[in-house]
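Study this:
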Amino acid sequence: MRPHWTQILIVLLVVVLLFGANRLPGLARSVGQSMKIFKNEVKDLADEDRPDAAATKTTVTGPAVPGPTAPAPDPVVDASAQRLADTPPDPAAPPRG
């Protein structure tokens, strides 16, 4: 049974009321990224099941070394991104929105 256009409209209205119009683009972006990761994992699992893929698959055991075509990472940008990811938010700060 296909949903009628009024049912779809009601569901969209409820979603907008629950999440707010400002959060919908971020929500859609995160769902898209999750779907992409899921597809890649399913593809990797399917590739592992094939016997010829196991022999050709290579693994990297050490950190990647930038080659002549790859630019060196910027330590200032990397350190600040790492610091922001590791530090919890300040409970006294007002919420961002």
The helical segments are 5-19, 24-49, 51-56, 75-86. Residues 24-53 form one domain. The mean pLDDT is 75. The CA atoms of residues 33 and 39 lie 10 Å apart.
